[in-house]
Structure formats: structure tokens, C-alpha cells
């Protein structure tokens, strides 16, 4: 294992990191791309500079990763890419419009490349996931208008990692997690009107589960012993 500090929106940093990995391991068989940031403010309160920063993190970083790695995979005659996207790239996310805008771009890019490389030894798979237990979902949980993110219990990071590994070995155009939500999301993706109807029906469930998640999260943090911070 090698851990490398990289500026994800710097093409030269990507090339340096890829060259170092190839120097150690000889070749790169695949890449799992999992990057994301969530604006903390409402649409009308977000500054152009903040949106630019989130656009760079969520979208531009993927552009540089693909720009560097795809030519390498083509030249070596094989390579597998898994892009971890979001439910926010499949259906609208009310009150998270800037985040959804970025993830729609990620999904469109990944699916388009999947078609371009279909039938070749290079594959691009998209893993569109719902909320995952992370610092991001804790941030979302504090927003009263984010009930749609809690219709299902947040996934464990380990669950996502397992499916990333499976897609690296057995590519698919797109896999949606949790699987139980996939039919509803694909149906809602057909029309904004269908999403509007489903959102109205499912929102009360999301509100209840979001409140439950808040209580469980508070209880979990309260039960954890305080630790001294050790600086090394």
C-alpha cells in the first residue's frame, strides 16, 4: 500500500501519483474513484466561489483522473474504472441542488464513457449510492429538509467497498445501492412528475427515519469515551 498526497484538481499531481504507483507495482489494473463534497449552505446563500470549489472537487477531479488513466489503460490493453456516484445523480435532491448538479455531471460522464468503451478491454462502471455512514451524512442529518436522504438506513462503508471491488472485477454499466431502492429510483428517473409523486409518498417515512437517525447518532457519540488527542 502507498498513500500519496495529491491535489485532485491538478493534472500534474495526478500524473506524478500515477507514475509513482506504476514505478512500484509495474502497472495499474484499475481505479476506484470516490470523491465528494456537499455544500453546507442553501442555494441562494452559496457564493460563486463556493460553488466553483465544489464543482472542482466533485467533477473536475474526475476529469483529470480519467484524462490521465484512460490513455494508459488503452495503451496497455486493459483496465477497469469504477466511479462512485450518488443517488443525487439519478433523481433530484430537493434542498441539495448544487450537490445534485455536480453528481448529475459525474453520472453523465461515467455512463457516456461506459458506452464509448463498450466491447473494449477498458471498462467504466458507475456505482450510484444512497447515503453512507460518514461525516457527510451526519452533516445532512442536521438539515430538517433532507428527509429524502433517510428513506433507507445509511449504508455501511464496507458495503460500498465490497461492491466497488466486485465492479472492478466484473464491470457493469451502473449499479444502484441500496438495491431495494433501485426500481423506484429508475422509475422516478423517467419523469420529474413521477419523482414528485414518489417524493410526496415517501417523504413522511424519511422524516421519521431522519429523526431516529439523529437520536441514534447522539446516543452513539455520548456513549463513546473521550480520548486524549495525541500529537506525533
CATH superfamily, called what?
NAD(P)-binding Rossmann-like Domain
Number of helices: 7
Tell the overall outline: globular
- Identify the CATH class: Alpha Beta
Which class do the helix and strand fractions yield? alpha/beta
User: Strands of the largest sheet, in order across it?
Assistant: 1-2-3-4
What number is the mean pLDDT? 85
- Helix proportion range: 40-55%
CATH topology: Rossmann fold
- Extract low-pLDDT stretches: 220-232
The biggest sheet amounts to: 4 strands, parallel
Q: How many strands appear in the DSSP assignment?
A: 4
In the CATH classification, which architecture applies?
3-Layer(aba) Sandwich
Q: Provide the domain count.
A: 1
**Beta fraction:** 5-15%
Order of helices and strands: HEHEHEHHEHH
Radius of gyration: 19 Å
From the structure above, extract its key features:
single chain, 232 residues, alpha/beta, Rossmann fold, four-stranded parallel sheet, 7 helices, 53% helix, 10% strand, globular, disordered C terminus
Structure notes:
The radius of gyration is 19 Å and the shape is globular. The two termini are 21 Å apart. Helix 2 packs parallel to helix 3 and helix 6 crosses helix 7. The protein is of the alpha/beta class. Strand 2, helix 3 and strand 3 form a beta-alpha-beta unit. Helix content is 53%, strand content 10%. The protein has a 4-stranded parallel beta sheet with strand order 1-2-3-4, sandwiched between helices. It has one domain: 3-Layer(aba) Sandwich (Rossmann fold). The C terminus is likely disordered.
Amino acid at each position: 500500500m502507498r498513500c500519496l498526497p495529491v491535489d485532485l484538481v491538478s493534472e500534474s499531481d495526478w500524473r506524478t501519483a500515477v507514475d509513482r504507483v506504476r514505478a512500484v507495482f509495474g502497472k495499474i489494473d484499475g481505479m476506484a474513484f470516490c470523491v465528494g463534497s456537499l455544500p453546507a449552505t442553501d442555494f441562494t446563500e452559496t457564493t460563486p466561489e463556493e460553488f466553483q470549489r465544489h464543482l472542482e472537487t466533485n467533477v473536475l477531479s474526475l476529469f483529470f483522473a480519467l484524462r490521465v488513466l484512460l490513455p494508459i489503460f488503452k495503451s496497455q490493453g486493459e483496465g477497469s474504472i469504477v466511479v462512485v456516484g450518488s443517488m443525487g445523480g439519478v433523481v433530484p435532491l430537493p434542498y441539495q441542488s448544487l450537490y445534485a448538479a455536480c453528481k448529475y455531471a459525474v453520472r453523465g460522464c461515467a455512463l457516456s464513457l461506459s458506452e464509448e468503451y463498450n466491447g473494449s478491454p477498458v471498462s467504466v462502471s458507475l456505482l450510484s449510492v444512497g447515503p453512507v455512514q460518514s461525516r457527510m451524512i451526519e452533516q445532512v442529518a442536521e438539515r430538517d429538509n433532507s428527509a429524502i436522504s433517510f428513506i433507507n438506513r445509511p449504508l455501511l462503508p464496507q458495503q460500498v467497498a465490497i461492491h466497488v471491488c466486485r465492479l472492478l472485477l466484473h464491470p457493469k454499466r451502473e449499479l444502484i445501492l441500496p438495491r431495494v431502492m433501485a426500481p423506484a429510483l429508475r422509475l422516478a428517473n423517467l419523469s420529474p412528475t413521477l419523482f414528485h409523486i414518489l417524493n410526496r409518498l415517501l417523504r413522511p417515512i424519511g422524516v421519521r427515519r431522519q429523526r431516529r437517525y439523529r437520536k441514534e447518532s447522539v446516543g452513539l457519540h455520548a456513549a463513546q469515551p473521550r480520548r486524549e488527542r495525541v500529537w506525533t
